């Protein structure tokens, strides 16, 4: 009973929708209680319906501010919607993701991400804008986890200066990229 209740507690925590999960094991009480019966009670504290975060990052000669919003357990079955926005001196990005586990088998899940990333690379006189979508399916097989992912990106490359090299100018413009992994 101890081991099974601990495994159940760990599964509940892995859902990412509870702040705290406590297990209380007690003997059965009452008129219809069995002599060797046990009551197992799970006391949970859910996360808030909306959580947010903000922070700053410094690195690679760039500073940026990151804002995030998360809606855990959005529809009551451990679904999550996450939005993240990052504004920096050379790069700006934002993304929206939706995560949906399979009921009863939370190791098997599906997620969709939509994003846009804009970056400047002054040493190459290059500006890049990526707009993309990705879908991901995670599933266990025996004792290993597997991921099947598709990603599609609309990439726009442009020159930052008239002094850009010929190879940068040659690659400028719009292109579509797709990958399966």
From TrEMBL:
Residues 1-47 form the POTRA domain. It is a multi-pass membrane protein. GO terms for biological process: mitochondrial respiratory chain complex assembly; protein insertion into mitochondrial outer membrane. The keyword Secreted does not apply. InterPro entries: Bac_surfAg_D15, D15-like, POTRA. The keyword Membrane applies. It is found in: Mitochondrion outer membrane. GO terms for cellular component: mitochondrial outer membrane. Keywords: Membrane, Transmembrane, Transmembrane beta strand. It comes from the Eukaryota. Belongs to the SAM50/omp85 family. This is SAM50 protein. The gene is Samm50.
């Amino acid at each position: 009973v101890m081991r099974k209740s601990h495994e159940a507690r760990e599964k509940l925590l892995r859902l990412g929708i509870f702040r705290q999960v406590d297990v209380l094991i007690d003997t059965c009480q009452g008129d219809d209680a069995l002599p060797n019966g046990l009551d197992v009670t799970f006391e949970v504290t859910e996360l808030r319906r909306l959580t947010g975060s903000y922070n700053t990052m410094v690195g690679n000669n760039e500073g940026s501010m990151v804002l995030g919003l998360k809606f855990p357990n959005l529809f009551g079955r451990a679904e999550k919607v996450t939005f993240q926005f990052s504004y920096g001196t050379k790069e700006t990005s934002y993304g929206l993701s939706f995560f949906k586990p399979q009921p009863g088998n939370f190791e098997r899940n599906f997620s969709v991400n939509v994003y846009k990333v804009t970056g400047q690379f002054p040493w190459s006189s290059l500006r890049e804008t990526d707009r993309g979508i990705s879908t991901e399916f995670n599933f266990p097989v025996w004792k290993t986890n597997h991921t099947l992912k598709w990603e599609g990106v609309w990439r726009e490359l442009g020159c930052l200066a008239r002094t850009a090299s010929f190879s940068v100018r040659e690659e400028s413009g719009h292109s579509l990229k797709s990958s399966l992994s």
